[in-house]
From TrEMBL:
This is Cilia- and flagella-associated protein 298-A. Keywords: Cell projection, Cilium, Flagellum. One of its GO terms (biological process) is regulation of cilium movement. Signal peptide: none annotated. It comes from the Eukaryota.
Length: 291
């Protein structure tokens, strides 16, 4: 199996395992789905923290308004009480984005635990643990989040709530930073060793027939051009090399400071050493007699 260390720019994302005879297009499509899926899980976890603290999302026409403005305009959130969790507590959202009917502490813990579990499933730490990621892992993380919302909000979430929209795959990211992070599958491509994987080819056309290979690949869009090459050595290897060079330099400095005849002070260079050994005169200590 071919092992891909997938990066976006210089940042590690996940490990991906495939076969060398797989078509490039299928592999790119699968990697992009995992990459975008991880972004989706991250977005939901962020919104779920707000959901746990301040309840469901307000309708767009009510967001950012003060209570006085809402009364003056005679606006009402038809979803707040309908979707409120059992035993809810009032927790006003200072940002004016959510209704303020938050889950009680025990249900709030359910949401936060699910978010932590989901983030752990798609964490980048799996790269260091040498654990590969698949679309099933992303789906498992989404199921964890979906299950938690159903437990806490049995009546469901409003159709305009970001968590529900993400889980229903109808989210609108236009005009947000998140939209710039998502990769369009139709424009995605992979690069390795400064060369682009050509659509229509098989992986073997670029990697050879060796099915036991580990390759660092970078995912990007067609408009971004070639990504930067991977450094010859890692940061840790570079530090170790510099440390070794420094130690060598200090050793050479020490040798230069030593006198050329310093070896004459050594026992092996003493002409009378053998005589002293025969007469038992080695290792004799003395001190002056005090009167």
């Amino acid at each position: 199996m071919v092992l891909f260390h997938v990066k976006r720019g210089d940042e590690s994302q996940f490990l991906y395992q495939t076969e060398v005879e797989k078509p490039v297009d299928d592999v790119v499509k699968d990697i992009v789905a995992i990459f975008n899926g991880r972004l989706k899980v991250t977005r939901i976890c962020h919104e779920m923290e707000e959901l746990a603290d301040h309840g469901t999302f307000l309708p767009l026409e009510m967001q950012g308004l003060t209570e006085e403005q809402i009364k003056e305009l005679k606006l009402e959130d038809p979803w707040a009480n309908r979707c409120a969790p059992q035993g809810y507590v009032v927790a006003k959202d200072e940002m004016g984005r959510r209704c303020g009917l938050a889950p009680p502490p025990n249900l709030k813990a359910v949401l936060k635990k699910a978010a932590e579990t989901a983030k752990d499933i798609i964490s980048k730490k799996h790269v260091d643990l040498q654990e590969c990621m698949t679309q099933k892992d992303v789906a498992r993380a989404l199921d964890e989040l979906r299950g938690a919302t159903k437990i806490v909000f049995p009546a469901g979430l409003p159709p305009h709530d970001p968590v529900r929209m993400e889980l229903d795959n109808v989210e609108d990211l236009s005009g947000t930073q998140a939209a710039n992070e998502v990769i369009d599958p139709s424009r995605a491509c992979l690069w390795a060793c400064g060369k682009k994987f050509i659509s229509g080819n098989k992986l073997s056309d670029h990697l050879g027939k060796n099915d036991k290979t580990k390759v660092t690949v970078k995912i990007c869009t067609a408009s971004e051009g070639a990504p930067g090459r991977e450094p010859i050595m890692s940061e840790e290897e570079r530090k170790q090399l510099m440390l070794h060079a420094y130690r060598k330099q200090e050793e050479w400095k020490k040798l230069e400071l030593d006198d050329e005849d310093a070896y004459l002070d050594s026992k092996w260079a003493d002409k009378r050493n053998l005589k002293r050994q025969l007469n038992g005169l080695n290792d004799i200590s003395w001190k002056p007699i005090m009167k």
